[in-house]
Amino acid sequence: MKNKLKYPMVIQWSEEDNCFLVGFPDFPGQKWRSHGDSYEEAVANGIEALESLIISYEAVSEPLPKPTFFKVAE
């Protein structure tokens, strides 16, 4: 599974929700997929949400979206 977790994860504080929201821009649908009260909790919940997304895609033989890769400044 680890090799499939190469998707960007967006973590953003929400004043309205009073927590960190987690999203995966490469996956269509809802913008936010998970959350956490702390940044660390949001990361852990985000990894779990991404694993669940991948499992659900594979369960219905849906091809996974192509991951976005960002060029690192040299």
Automatic annotation (TrEMBL):
Residue ranges of coiled coil: none
Highest rank taxon of the organism: Bacteria
HicB-like antitoxin of toxin-antitoxin system domain residues: 7-67
UniProt xrefs under SUPFAM superfamilies: TTHA1013/TTHA0281-like
InterPro entries in the record: HicB-like (IPR031807), TA_system_antitoxin (IPR051404), TTHA1013/TTHA0281-like (IPR035069)
Alphabetical list of PANTHER family matching this protein: ANTITOXIN HICB (PTHR34504), UPF0150 PROTEIN SSL0259 (PTHR34504:SF2)
Protein's UniProt name: Type II toxin-antitoxin system HicB family antitoxin
Organism: Lusitaniella coriacea LEGE 07157
